[in-house]
Amino acid sequence: MSSVITPSHLSGTVKIPPSKSMAHRAIICASLASGVCHISNVQFSADVLATIGAMRALGATIEIEGDCLTIYPVDTSKIQGDEVVIDCNESGSTLRFLTMIALALTDKKVHFVGMGKLGSRPMQAYYDIFDRQGIFYRDDSALTAERLLDLHVQGALKSGEFYLSGDVSSQFVSGLLFAASLLEGDSVINITTPMQSVGYVDLTIKAMRDFGVEVINHDYRRLIVKGGRRYNARDYEVEGDYSQSAFFTVANLIGNSVNIEGLDPDSLQGDKVVFDLCELLKNTSEEEKITIDGKDCPDIIPVLAVGCALRKGKTEIINLERLKIKECDRLSATYEVLNTLGAKVSKAEDSLTFEGVNSFSGGSVSTYGDHRMAMSIAIASTRARGVITIDDRHCVAKSYPDFWEVFGALGGKIR
Fold it and tell me: 190, 195, 238: which is closest to 216 by C-alpha?
């Protein structure tokens, strides 16, 4: 069912929801701990629920009460039958993290299933490791017209030297870091090309350290992990999410008045850069071209593009190749949506270039079933001259289930 967003001014205070990225990591570390852990300030988005389900499938007991989790550690003797089924829904983090963790925990066959475009997202970085170690895998995702995730793996992951490209997804590095800490013997992860999205690797290393497991980081080229680790049981509060704050930060950039609360100023989240980028867009003369490198902050690009489209002068965002392999092709989707709404955007192989307009015109656009596209369109509506019609408001459940309620409380209008 389509929804209509009416132009409005946003004002008031918003408490930014907990970090989805840190929730994934805290749930995994707690499930691998030596005792009971309590995780607070959790938002139960579809992605986070997928990771909870995955750890339960591997033998963890996880109880939910309010925004808190009580987690009893993995006990693989609880796994029933010969096969473990892990439903990743549409969560790339769940798939990439748990593929390696499962191989470190159980010798049973593990069947990963999922929805949306997850079956089309790259996994070759892991398949190369499986080929070298003789681990069984069969990816049947391409056998159906919908390309739904259908991946089978089985085998014993062994410690040692690993090689990963740094320019595909940092999720591969994170998944291998978690798994390597569980193996007998030490491991070295060699990054063969410059690392992109290093902030997400920093978050993984921080979460592991918070739970008592150290990673030795040699300038993101060699990551050394001691094997046979047991994570420490502890209480843990999930910090606020800078990638979600980006929507309101850009909202302020384009003329709204939102007070943002609930963020850790010392956070290692890479998307924290959104504040600096908005300052750059705000304070640079229109005669000066701005070039922004998007390789380390792909999740904030759709909403940042809204701000770029409204900045007087010429703005370019480069190194956006990885946007093509998100929940949708966000490079093309951002280009299509903003131009339909009256922006002046050109698209190259891995970049977007903007010639500033004063406002958006309104119109009918697709969210492409992508949560970040839907929320970016909502922010764009606050500088539109007419209503904007979207086809799927509910896709925000993937990361920010109550976004539309928050949007409405700030003065946003959607029906």
Answer: 190
